[in-house]
Please model this.
Amino acid sequence: NADIAMYHAKAQGRNNCQFFTPEMNERAVQRLLIEGGLRRALGNQEFRLHYQPQINLASGAVTGAEALLRWRTPDHGLVSPTQFVPIAEECGLIVPIGQWVLREACRQIRAWQDRGLCVVPVAVNISVVELRRPGFAESVARILYETGVPPHLLELELTETRLMQDAESSMSVLRSLKSIGVKLVMDDFGTGYSSLSYLRRFPFDVLKIDQSFIHDLDSEDGDAGIVGAIIGMATHLRQKVVAEGVETEQQLALLRIRQCDAVQGHLVGRPMEADGFAGLLAGGMPAR
Ligand code: C2E
Ligand code: MG
Ligand code: MG
Ligand code: MG
Model:
């Protein structure tokens, strides 16, 4: 029947149209561009690490740093890690990139030590894709050994959501990493679904409260009680607590009252080049 055939053709046509929307096509093209760019980025030395200070709330001293990956492309300038890290994870390039990040952070720690600076622990973000590769813990041990960095100066940050998707299989790798002597940080805490029993069993040394909770502290219905409860729980588990994304004096004051250990955010220091961070270390006491 002609009508039915016509109907099918239209329906199919519509489906095809929906599948190849211009918007999607653009996204697919952007994806391919990023993937292609990433394949050349390591060889072209387009990556840098920036370092964002963490400030101890009681003493005001710089007690740590987070290394954040920066990618400057020849054609499109800076591309945010929130854009390229997920693509690097999907195509597997996060593995060599992650190894570069670890080695570069350790090389930098060593260079600061060689200049006689009093170096604080540096936290490196690790993707679960890297964590689940056989031999990951061994590669961390090798990089520490080759760069001559004491393990306690390296922290590895893992985001809660991704880790909990396959909690059991991560456990043995985390234990191996702990046995090397590096510290483990649970990043973006509060955005995932960790059960209390996992939190107790996982060997995390530091818990980072997700920025969304910190930003909420300034809003009408902001809940300082939740942040206080997270801090209380972490303290009970003998974990250090870091608040990330601290931008206002009000947030800082509330975190101080709740006895948060350390803060990280634009209010106390933006991510900066290695030399800028060396200046902070050399200066001893920061602004606050
Ligand atoms: P993250 O690990 O949660 O890092 C914190 C992010 O918050 C960073 O964004 C940092 O620049 C930003 N930030 C710091 N202070 C403030 C503040 O006061 N306000 C606001 N609004 N933001 C602040 P960035 O550098 O764009 O990195 C985004 C994410 O990309 C990171 O989130 C991390 O998940 C990932 N990432 C960054 N570097 C690496 C890396 O070397 N390897 C891997 N696997 N992931 C990385
Ligand atoms: Mg992080
Ligand atoms: Mg985070
Ligand atoms: Mg994050």
